[in-house]
Amino acid sequence: MKFLTVLLFASLLFAAVDINNASKIELMSLKGIGTKKADTIISYRKNHCFKDAQSLTEVKGIGVKTVAKNRAEIKVGACRK
């Protein structure tokens, strides 16, 4: 079981994270995004769609530097509201 968890987490490190649809664990694979910020992103996107990576800065606690550090890992998929 530990092997599968490690394998899943490793795969998340190399995959782009769709900020409109990612799970909490997937969001937490981004640099500077922990449990609380992942929860805040998920809560925010219940009422808003991200149009691009930069719009992630509209979430309280997510700044320009965090987006810049993760730009290559962020993708923006279709919004499902």
Describe, in plain words, how this protein is organized in 3D.
A two-stranded parallel ribbon has the order 1-2. Helix content is 44%, strand content 5%. The termini are far apart. It has helices at 2-14, 24-28, 35-45, 64-70; strands spanning 17-18, 74-75. It has four helices and two strands; from the N terminus they run αβαααβ. The longest helix has 13 residues, at 2-14. The model has no long low-confidence stretch (mean pLDDT 89). It is mainly alpha-helical and 81 residues long. The chain has a single domain, classed as DNA polymerase, domain 1, CATH 1.10.150.320. It is globular, with a radius of gyration of 12 Å.
Radius of gyration: 12 Å
Question: Which series of helices and strands comes N to C?
Answer: HEHHHE
Number of helices: 4
The domain count comes to: 1
As residue ranges, the low-confidence spans are none
Class of secondary structure makeup: mainly alpha
What percent of residues are in strands?
under 5%
Sheet of most strands = 2 strands, parallel
Number of strands: 2
Question: CATH superfamily membership, which one?
Answer: Photosystem II 12 kDa extrinsic protein
Span between termini: 33 Å
Kindly summarize this structure in a few lines:
This protein is mostly helical and 81 residues long. It has helices at 2-14, 24-28, 35-45, 64-70, and strands at 17-18, 74-75. The protein has one domain (2-75): DNA polymerase, domain 1.
Keywords, separated by commas or semicolons:
4 helices, mainly alpha, globular, 2 strands, about 5% strand, two-stranded parallel ribbon, DNA polymerase, domain 1, about 80 residues, about 45% helix
